[in-house]
Specification:
Elements: H1 2-11, H2 44-51, H3 65-107, E1 115-119, H4 126-133, H5 146-154, E2 159-167, E3 171-178, E4 183-188, E5 195-200, E6 206-209, H6 216-219, H7 223-231, E7 233-236, H8 253-264, H9 268-272, E8 273-277, E9 285-288, E10 293-295, H10 302-315, E11 320-324, E12 332-335
Parallel strand pairs: 1-3, 4-7, 7-8, 10-11
Antiparallel strand pairs: 2-3, 4-5, 5-6, 8-9, 9-10, 11-12
Protein name: FtsQ-type POTRA domain-containing protein
InterPro entries: FtsQ_DivIB, POTRA, POTRA_FtsQ_type
Organism: Xiamenia xianingshaonis
């Protein structure tokens, strides 16, 4: 009967508290919540969860200003490096293109020289200049050897300086500076029976023998040579044995002394000298226009000797026939 009662009680609406279920060992089962929610303020576990510290997100980290600046510098450095690499690549490509183009033009007939002009050449004819230049046929403005051209022209005694200019697309201009005729030296011929005129520059360079007018050689000589010779100082009475050579410096002491004296004169006396007798150094004598012969001697103390000569002529307005200033501090003269 007891078992039936129990079933009835369980099925009825009685509010009597049911006895807790027991496990097989006699202990009551622990109550288990039906879900993960635990009401606030109830139980020990709820307080512990409020006090537990919150863990940081592992994806986040602190960054300083120094780190940002370092990263910025590194980024800029990488960008600069890449730009430089690109620039170097472009420059290298341009160099290759330019070198290739240069090689092509150098060996091609582009810029072939069609005309050559010589400026400043007065004592040499155009035919002589062309022969001296010796420019290869088919030469171009790019492959012509300018150094060789200059050396060829400087071999001539008349030419002192050379400047070469390329005028694209097909012209070459050559500017030359010539030596001038400082004097005409009357050099004794090998048999001593006559003299031959030689043009000489102020630096002692033998320029050329001057052909006599009317000869075949004279027809091939520039007219400017004869014009200069007519107005140039003449050095006469040169000792026998003087042997001039075109393009070489004069090694005759008498001629060089005469040139040095005339080159050192600075007053009106220089323009009045018409000839110099160069028999020997100590007796070198100047012949002046409308004035006396002056035994000048060596080229020492040229300015002082010149001053003494002018003073003597000024002190004797009636005229002087002869002046000797070989010893400048003891001059002698003879009045008319």
């Amino acid at each position: 009967m007891a078992s039936n009662y129990s079933r009835k009680s369980g099925s009825s609406g009685s509010r009597r508290t049911a006895s807790p279920r027991r496990s097989e060992g006699g202990r009551p089962y622990a109550a288990r919540p039906s879900s993960g929610y635990v009401p606030s303020g109830h139980g020990h576990n709820s307080s512990a969860s409020r006090r537990r510290p919150q863990q940081p997100d592992p994806r986040l980290r602190s960054v300083t200003v120094r780190d940002i600046e370092r990263a910025t510098r590194q980024k800029r450095a990488r960008q600069t490096y890449r730009r430089r690499l690109v620039s170097l690549g472009v420059a290298a490509a341009l160099v290759v293109v330019l070198v290739g183009a240069g090689v092509f033009l150098y060996h091609s007939s582009v810029f072939q020289i069609e005309s050559v002009s010589f400026n400043g050449a007065e004592h040499l004819t155009n035919e002589e200049m062309v022969a001296l230049a010796d420019i290869d046929e088919g030469a171009t403005l790019l492959n012509i050897d300018v150094s060789a051209l200059r050396e060829n022209l400087l071999e001539d005694a008349w030419i002192e300086e050379v400047a070469v200019h390329r005028v694209f697309p097909d012209s070459l201009e050559v500017d030359v500076t010539e030596r001038t005729v400082a004097a005409v030296v009357e050099v004794p011929t090998s048999d001593g029976a006559d003299t031959k005129d030689w043009a000489i520059a102020s630096d002692g360079m033998w320029l050329m023998p001057i052909p006599k007018k009317g000869t075949e050689e004279a027809e091939r000589t520039s007219e400017r040579v004869y014009e200069d010779a007519a107005g140039a100082l003449h050095i006469t009475e040169v000792p026998y044995g003087t042997q001039p050579k075109v393009g070489e410096r004069c090694d005759d002491a008498n001629v060089n002394n005469a040139l040095s004296i005339v080159d050192g004169l600075t007053t009106e006396l220089a323009d009045r000298v018409t000839s110099v007798k160069a028999t020997e150094t100590e007796s070198t004598t100047l012949t002046i226009k409308d004035g006396p012969d002056i035994v000048f001697g060596t080229d020492e103390h040229v300015r002082e000797k010149e001053r003494v000569c002018l003073q003597i002529m000024e002190d004797h307005p009636e005229g002087v026939a002869y002046i000797n200033v070989r010893t400048v501090d003891r001059p002698t003269w003879r009045a008319l």
